[in-house]
């Protein structure tokens, strides 16, 4: 219990380090919070008018997809922050200190999850302002938020592993660019049925699509017809995909952290 207490305390110290960065450079935090809002307004007011959805209200359809995309875009911030710490020697400095070896990873995870909660809250407020609503009761709405955070938690481990393994700034930049196609290759903004067959199948099985479809169902917002097995079982896949991602990348992240000095 004593070791666990110190591990939690050390992890919280690393988390507080991120809070210090926010207070010293609030512009970066504000820009990160406003970016999903700008994407939301772009699709809600500029591009969404040409997209037909069941029920006829594209904004009702759009919001759960934007929530899910924000969870995926958070992956970029995780591996960039981890990669910068590794490249600049900050992680090695932490490893030389008398602190729990898990603190760097757990502290980063806690800071990113708190950032995600704040970003999601801002996006929900903006959604309410443009006419979106959760029409299936507060319990189902909370369950939808839980599914979104569950996806983000799983992607945290992927981001930590990528940040520990890829230290080249050019490679990090390439990864940042690749996050966008992963987000758009889904049902978040449009129907996979409008894509070529093989591409639509990939979009259907994208973990982002499962979470977005399940969130639409729980929020009571319109979605696409369940034309595929993946679409018909979105809720089950929204639970299973993050579990699989965590089971794969959490051990890989721990191993990569332990092997940093080798």
From TrEMBL:
<keyword id="KW-0046">Antibiotic resistance</keyword>
<dbReference type="InterPro" id="IPR000412">
    <property type="entry name" value="ABC_2_transport"/>
</dbReference>
<keyword id="KW-0812">Transmembrane</keyword>
<comment type="similarity">
    <text>Belongs to the ABC-2 integral membrane protein family.</text>
</comment>
<dbReference type="InterPro" id="IPR047817">
    <property type="entry name" value="ABC2_TM_bact-type"/>
</dbReference>
<feature type="transmembrane region" description="Helical">
    <location>
        <begin position="103"/>
        <end position="130"/>
    </location>
</feature>
<dbReference type="InterPro" id="IPR013525">
    <property type="entry name" value="ABC2_TM"/>
</dbReference>
<keyword id="KW-0472">Membrane</keyword>
<protein>
    <recommendedName>
        <fullName>Transport permease protein</fullName>
    </recommendedName>
</protein>
<dbReference type="InterPro" id="IPR051784">
    <property type="entry name" value="Nod_factor_ABC_transporter"/>
</dbReference>
<feature type="transmembrane region" description="Helical">
    <location>
        <begin position="142"/>
        <end position="164"/>
    </location>
</feature>
<dbReference type="GO" id="GO:0046677">
    <property type="term" value="P:response to antibiotic"/>
</dbReference>
<keyword id="KW-0813">Transport</keyword>
<feature type="transmembrane region" description="Helical">
    <location>
        <begin position="29"/>
        <end position="49"/>
    </location>
</feature>
<keyword id="KW-1133">Transmembrane helix</keyword>
<feature type="transmembrane region" description="Helical">
    <location>
        <begin position="171"/>
        <end position="189"/>
    </location>
</feature>
<dbReference type="GO" id="GO:0140359">
    <property type="term" value="F:ABC-type transporter activity"/>
</dbReference>
<feature type="transmembrane region" description="Helical">
    <location>
        <begin position="61"/>
        <end position="82"/>
    </location>
</feature>
<feature type="domain" description="ABC transmembrane type-2">
    <location>
        <begin position="27"/>
        <end position="260"/>
    </location>
</feature>
<dbReference type="GO" id="GO:0043190">
    <property type="term" value="C:ATP-binding cassette (ABC) transporter complex"/>
</dbReference>
<keyword id="KW-1003">Cell membrane</keyword>
<dbReference type="Pfam" id="PF01061">
    <property type="entry name" value="ABC2_membrane"/>
</dbReference>
<feature type="transmembrane region" description="Helical">
    <location>
        <begin position="229"/>
        <end position="252"/>
    </location>
</feature>
